[in-house]
Amino acid sequence: MTEKNFNSDSEIIKPVHTSKVGGSPFKGVAGWIDNRLPILRIFKYEYLDFQVPKSLNYFWSLGGILMVCLIFLIITGVTLGMHYKPSSSEAFNSVEKIMRDVNFGWLIRYAHMNLASFFFIAVYLHIFRGLYYGSYKEPRQLMWLLGIIIFFMMMATAFLGYTLPWGQMSYWGATVITNLFSAIPVVGKFIVTWLWGDYAVGDSTLNRFYVLHWLIAFGIVGIVVFHVIALHIVGSNNPSGIEPVDTRDTVSFAPYTTSKDLFAMLVFLLIFVLFMMYIPNYLGHPDNYIPANPLVTPAHIVPEWYFLPYYAILRSIPNKLLGVIAMVSSIAMLGLLPWLDLSKVRSSVFRPIWKQFIFLFVLDFFLLMYLGKMPPEGVYVILSRIGLAYWFMFFLIITPLVSIMETPLQMPNSIHEYEDWKKKGKIKTLKIF
């Protein structure tokens, strides 16, 4: 070792390269830009050339559909925010002004309002796909957890957005939901007062909810970025639940998957446009076209349809604190699935018993959705408690027991073999997708 490798303090000197310019596969202006900001090569390697399993069905198009929904929700939301006034005395009238006086204001508002519902429809299908095909299993646990965080943030954003028109359901929905925090021991009342910004739901509350609606919505975009990065690290799951072995098992994302996703998006948007144009208020509540009145309580306070299963769970327990814990836990349980399901087989295609319990869970979800809009009395409360019992049994008892005791069906050794078996009728799959 020569003297050049040492400084005066006998410290080893190594060459450093702080610049990472270079390595772009592109030429000309595109290469010059990509060498300094490698967004073009990221797009090429992580989207155009990204390898995905060849057995993906239309369930896997829901990710792209959700991305499109999120983009349009932000665009329409920003446009509405330019005309909306977050004041308890002006909010309702400002929404009516958007509908009647702003050019295409009715279209923008109906698009935003109905797209929120279609966003949740796509998300629930996305979650079902994850449950059915085992997308929460190793090595995709973190990606699944990020998805659950997005779901919680979506629910918060949707609730805050529902309060902004400041109709009767907006006002009383805000009152009921914020009062749930008072069930938290010691600090509950302080949290409620902080949320209200006053001693009752009013002008300060509306201002805070308006800001939080924006803040959490853009927070969702940030977590979605991490969700997509995690997907590109671990790769896509597929209906067989088998990891790709060689090039016979995969195709390039473009043009194969992109063409399928584009078709699915067009069908989804067609259904959405038809719904928005012909029955835009079908999923809303007529009481929300009545200005908020603190002196008149609606006969039956009902949240948006996508909250109804959890609302039914909340009301099925007479104790306020336990009801809140059950409601939050019913969603959080999804995050525990990677560790509760001990089966080495991912896909329900090869798990006949587990498949039946998933379908029962879906039925339970719709039962609770129906019960959530019914009055909390008589047989509806009893059925809600039965639905609640199965919901938690599914996660805490059925999932680990079935994963231990179930004998899976014979599985192929690769995805291309799975495709051959499917063509020969050896495998029964969901025919719709």
Could you characterize what this model shows?
This protein is mainly alpha-helical and 433 residues long. The protein has 16 helices and two strands. Helix 6 packs across helix 7 and helix 11 runs antiparallel to helix 12. The longest helix has 32 residues. The N and C termini lie far apart (66 Å).
List keywords for this structure.
433 residues, mainly alpha, two-stranded antiparallel ribbon, 16 helices
Order of helices and strands: HHEHHHHHHHEHHHHHHH
**Which secondary-structure class do the elements indicate?**
mainly alpha
Radius of gyration: 26 Å
Cα(first) to Cα(last) distance is 66 Å
Number of strands: 2
Question: DSSP helix count?
Answer: 16
Helix content: 55-70%
Reported for the largest beta sheet, the result is: 2 strands, antiparallel
Detail the poorly predicted runs. Answer: none
3D shape? globular
Strand content: under 5%
- Strand line-up across the major sheet: 1-2
- What is the typical, i.e. mean, pLDDT? 94
